[in-house]
């Protein structure tokens, strides 16, 4: 597949044509879902009314579109992109399609941190974000240290991560059961992962944090691709693997925890989006841009489905992503089981 070289000043970036075409198609799909999300609600608003609202026209219906629907639509796009990128980071690190934050316990660790902020501290947005990031980092550190004792490998990280996820889920349940009733009810509802009630006040800091993290990830995308092709090749091309891995873990945990702090743990987007993006792009490794854009499209589509399934009651988007992701995980496990005997029979 031919590639384009984009140059600006002394910087250059090599991009495959197929990746660019795929990115354009996914952006169009995301734009179509965004328009549908702005139109859909208890009362349908046509695209003409959406345009009037976004252009600043006064009026009650326009305020609903600008202040209620637009933050939710943007949150679906940005949070989905963050989860897709985080999933690509960890699947590249583990070289395993199951190596996503929600499988290896990082989502559960971020949720633990958020629960501590809710039950022990005041539960302000800043405290939730900081506690979620610290919880995710702590979970990542524990999983890595336990895997390090027997030699780090992708499969070992995933297996230990699954065990850590189960343990942290039990800890989270204990925290909820010990909390005050009001806090417990709020925590259980939030744990499903939801964009219901998201407004502009919730999004300023998370959007800024995610923008910085994704920019840092984009700057390291070439190194990520080289590392995904093998440690020897990466070292031969001058990549400092341990430093790169630390940077990627911090970026991936930051993206996951920031989303968790606002919307709760939204399951399976980080698991499915990177593999879908990889297959669509037909690229080596797990490409970051397709994974992020597929994640954005998946979360936007799941949120629309969550609003429509039991309308006028809006389900938490995590209910839909869990249902879809569960089917995907069963397919992935069956596929890996079929591949294992074949791989063992090869010399």
From TrEMBL:
Gene Ontology cellular component annotations, sorted alphabetically: plasma membrane
Pfam family, one: FecCD
Membrane topology listed for this record: Multi-pass membrane protein
Gene3D superfamilies in the record: ABC transporter involved in vitamin B12 uptake, BtuC
Entry superkingdom: Bacteria
GO molecular function: transmembrane transporter activity
Subcellular location: Cell membrane
Matches recorded under SUPFAM superfamilies: ABC transporter involved in vitamin B12 uptake, BtuC
A Gene Ontology biological process term: siderophore-iron import into cell
InterPro entries, sorted: ABC_BtuC-like, ABC_transptr_permease_BtuC
Keywords attached to this entry: Cell membrane, Membrane, Transmembrane, Transmembrane helix, Transport
Transmembrane domains' residue ranges: 73-91, 103-122, 128-148, 155-177, 197-219, 248-273, 313-334
Family note: Belongs to the binding-protein-dependent transport system permease family. FecCD subfamily.
PANTHER family (alphabetical): FERRIC ENTEROBACTIN TRANSPORT SYSTEM PERMEASE PROTEIN (PTHR30472), FERRIC ENTEROBACTIN TRANSPORT SYSTEM PERMEASE PROTEIN FEPG (PTHR30472:SF24)
Name of the protein described by the UniProt record: Iron-enterobactin transporter permease
């Amino acid at each position: 597949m031919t590639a384009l070289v984009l140059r600006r000043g002394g910087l250059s970036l090599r991009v495959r044509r197929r990746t660019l075409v795929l990115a354009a198609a996914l952006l169009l799909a995301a734009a179509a879902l965004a328009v549908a999300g702005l139109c859909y609600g208890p009362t349908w608003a046509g695209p003409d009314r959406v345009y009037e609202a976004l252009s600043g026209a006064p009026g009650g219906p326009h305020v609903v579109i600008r202040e209620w629907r637009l933050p939710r639509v943007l949150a679906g796009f940005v949070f989905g992109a963050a989860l897709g990128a985080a999933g690509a980071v960890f699947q590249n690190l583990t070289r395993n399609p199951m190596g996503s934050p929600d499988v290896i316990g990082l989502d559960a660790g971020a949720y633990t941190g958020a629960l501590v902020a809710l039950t022990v501290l005041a539960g302000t947005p800043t405290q939730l974000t900081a506690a979620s990031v610290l919880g995710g980092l702590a979970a990542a550190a524990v999983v890595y240290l336990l895997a390090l004792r027997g030699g780090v490998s992708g499969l070992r990280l995933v297996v230990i991560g699954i065990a850590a996820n189960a343990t942290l889920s039990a800890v989270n349940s204990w925290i909820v059961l010990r909390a005050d009733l009001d806090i417990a009810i709020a925590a259980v509802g939030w744990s499903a992962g939801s964009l219901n009630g998201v407004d502009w006040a919730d999004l300023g800091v998370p959007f800024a944090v995610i923008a910085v993290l994704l920019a840092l990830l984009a700057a390291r995308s070439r190194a990520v691709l080289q590392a995904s092709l093998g440690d020897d090749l990466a070292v031969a091309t001058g990549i400092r693997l341990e430093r790169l891995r630390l940077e990627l873990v911090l970026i991936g945990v930051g993206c996951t925890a920031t989303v968790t702090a606002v919307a709760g743990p939204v399951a399976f987007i980080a698991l499915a989006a990177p593999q879908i993006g990889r297959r669509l792009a037909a690229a080596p490794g797990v490409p970051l841009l397709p994974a992020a854009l597929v994640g954005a499209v998946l979360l936007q589509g799941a949120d629309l489905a969550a609003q429509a399934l039991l309308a006028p009651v809006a389900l938490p988007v995590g209910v839909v992503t869990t249902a879809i992701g569960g089917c995907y995980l069963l397919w992935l496990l069956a596929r890996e089981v079929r591949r294992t005997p074949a791989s063992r029979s090869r010399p």
